[in-house]
TrEMBL record, chains A, B:
Organism listed in the record: Paenalkalicoccus suaedae
Molecular-function GO term, any one: 2,3-diketo-5-methylthiopentyl-1-phosphate enolase activity
Keyword list, A-Z: Amino-acid biosynthesis, Isomerase, Magnesium, Metal-binding, Methionine biosynthesis
Annotated positions binding substrate: 134, 160-163, 251, 323, 345-346
Protein name: 2,3-diketo-5-methylthiopentyl-1-phosphate enolase
Gene for this chain: mtnW
Taxon lineage: Bacteria, Bacillati, Bacillota, Bacilli, Bacillales
Amino acid sequence: MSFVTATYLVPGGLDLHKKAEGIALGLTVGSWTDLPALEQAQLKKHKGEVIATNDGTPKATITIRYPAVNFTPDIPAILTTIFGKLSLDGEIKLVDIAFDDALAKQFPGPQFGVDGIRELIGVHDRPLVMSIFKGMIGKGLDEFETQLDAQARGGVDLVKDDEILFDNPLTPFEERVKRGKHILDKVEQETGRRVLYAVNLSGRTFELRDKARKAVKLGASALLFNVFAYGLDTLQALAEDPEINVPIMAHPAVSGALTASPDYGIANSVLLGKLLRIAGADLVLFPSPYGSVALPKEETDAIALALTEPTVHRAAYPVPSAGIHPGLVPHLVRDFGEISVINAGGGIHGHPDGSAAGATAFRQAVDAVLDDTSLEDAALQKAELAAAIKLWGHPL
Amino acid sequence: MSFVTATYLVPGGLDLHKKAEGIALGLTVGSWTDLPALEQAQLKKHKGEVIATNDGTPKATITIRYPAVNFTPDIPAILTTIFGKLSLDGEIKLVDIAFDDALAKQFPGPQFGVDGIRELIGVHDRPLVMSIFKGMIGKGLDEFETQLDAQARGGVDLVKDDEILFDNPLTPFEERVKRGKHILDKVEQETGRRVLYAVNLSGRTFELRDKARKAVKLGASALLFNVFAYGLDTLQALAEDPEINVPIMAHPAVSGALTASPDYGIANSVLLGKLLRIAGADLVLFPSPYGSVALPKEETDAIALALTEPTVHRAAYPVPSAGIHPGLVPHLVRDFGEISVINAGGGIHGHPDGSAAGATAFRQAVDAVLDDTSLEDAALQKAELAAAIKLWGHPL
Ligand SMILES: [Mg+2]
Ligand SMILES: [Mg+2]
């Protein structure tokens, strides 16, 4: 028998066991004690079970196990079961989920994951560095090419579209893919470094699969996807498609509507961690604990753990984002280790000497940290890093 | 020029205009005052505009207008623009949206809506009555047929699956459709009343369209859909499909994760009201203001208004649900009027004389209210209604 186990945060001081029993029955067989023995025997394997209740007033947790026989092995059915009607039932937050291995294996997980992406890029011994295009709305393909070239030559491993850049007449999706491939091929020929470009896969749901397949044929090296504007199952379908054989980067857009409240919704570690990994995200962006748009460090730790801890699936890359500049690299490496992607927008394009220098400064900071050299010492030799630290500082 | 206008609830007492400018620029052209005049001219039509700020400390609102030229006319692109990154930006709730008519017309809205469903059922002068199957998990097709027959004969206009009943070996999706049609055809022949059965459309996203088309071919008369376990755009694709020519009933499962917090997420009137209607839901279930799983009446009023106020789209049926019994019918009619569906599960199956009597009691209550007869007076003549009121009471 397979199960999904879900843990909920609820107000403390209630009759927890009664509440838990109500959930376990209400979301499975409906009722129990008043059923005839024959019906109980028939329904036993469908019945939800209360696994634990813990009152730590003012908050308490309830853990319930739902038999997988009640749903089809897809995320919409599971979400509807464990947090469908229940999401509407007063103060309650879904704070953990667990699939047993047999059930988990029915989901793809990352098709590349950390090892696959390292293989693609040819980097195995340091955190990767990623940059984001700056202000592309209203700009054309020349600007696109200039920015991509500068970022790639500066030394980043990945470049991503901004999540608000959709298919548009100035920089059409397919043109971005084709020109992106051309530029990155040239950079590889000249520098030996393979850089991936994650183009924003957008548009109508039922067109996404064909659009992604076409992009891959045209030379796309990665996809950016606003999962939560669509649905986790759509991500899964893209991840499972054998023709869409490039890494998929999940953007957290809209996810704050589900995760931000302490009392309602779904925990970041569940939504951006466990569910995105199960559904097949290869890289997961989330707010870093440092910037202006920040998450508490316990939450970013929990996301990173959910993406990388041993499970039946490959590990996905944590990509702590927002407010990142070279002075934060020691913090990023300390907090997220080598299995992470250092991602910057303003911290690259805002560099006094331009985007390429901004990218170089990040690579210099990473090298310094891995060499156990302080940023100050490294900056004595590295002009780009020195300029970055002069501008943004170097918090201890 | 077309626009989406979005209003956000944020903490009061900030420098609101600065915050609003930051949002309007950050989610469109990125920056403005430091741009050369030539670039400003080029980017002008892409720039977000602050329409209003209102400080009513402790809370304040910000209204921003986003040019539609920045996104493709689909809900994922719009959500990503107006509440993508922004959903992660501290305490903020999306409390209103508006599409101008030109933009709104690029969305289907309900394909049947209130008038179309009245036409299908042949009822034009009273609220409709709907019932839900009881505890079908673990049960077989005999139980399905028995329950459907009792509910339909009792006098309801619509019957819906429970949202947690997925495709399963005991009551397979296609069998439910075929047997449902057979039973409802018989009821129509014998009583002259047309009853719709909304089968739960579930499974993998990319299979839904074919599954729904097949269901319609097999005689499905309506579809239940857990929109928020998938995505609004998937609902839209189902609504737009000419072969899926039956009403679609949107279930609010999982929506509480987005709507329940007063400070974060998306308002019910936006998510269950405006967006479901634009995307094409014909009927929208939401928690009634009366039951144990209840919404504040201001919120249910706002949902019902968003579903029915004059727009470029057909009106969708508000379906206030949960905790409904015949004694509440006067309240439902007072609060939601004739353009609503009265929806009950326990209030039908829990009737002392069974589900058919439970359905009949609801119809008797509706007739009494429309005749301006009190339920007490009506109950003198109507045994089923009398038994229901005896059991559940009749709150004033
Ligand atoms: Mg961005
Ligand atoms: Mg239900």
